[in-house]
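QA checklist item 7 of 12: single-chain prediction sanity check.
[x] sequence parsed
[x] length recorded as 91
[x] structure emitted
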Amino acid sequence: MTEQKNKTSLIEFPCTFPLKVMGAVHPEFEQAVLETVRLHAPDTQAHHITTRPSSKGNYTGATVQVKVENQEQLDNIYRALTSHELVKVVL
């Protein structure tokens, strides 16, 4: 299977993109998400993240407003987050 090089994106770059991250209830979850995002978007600050518990309190949901320059940067952030041990889902 070959990767299509000229993909048309529905996202106009640069932009601020909201990443939805769900993960384990853990005291370091928010900081871990921030540090992971900063690997690829170093300007991301703590005030760019909002968190809330799931309805049953088993998970934490976070929304991170990330300034991204291109699709490659966004893909790298997704890959980094999905491979983190505290993260269950990234949307």
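[x] summary fact logged: Helices lie at 29-38, 71-82.
[ ] second reviewer sign-off
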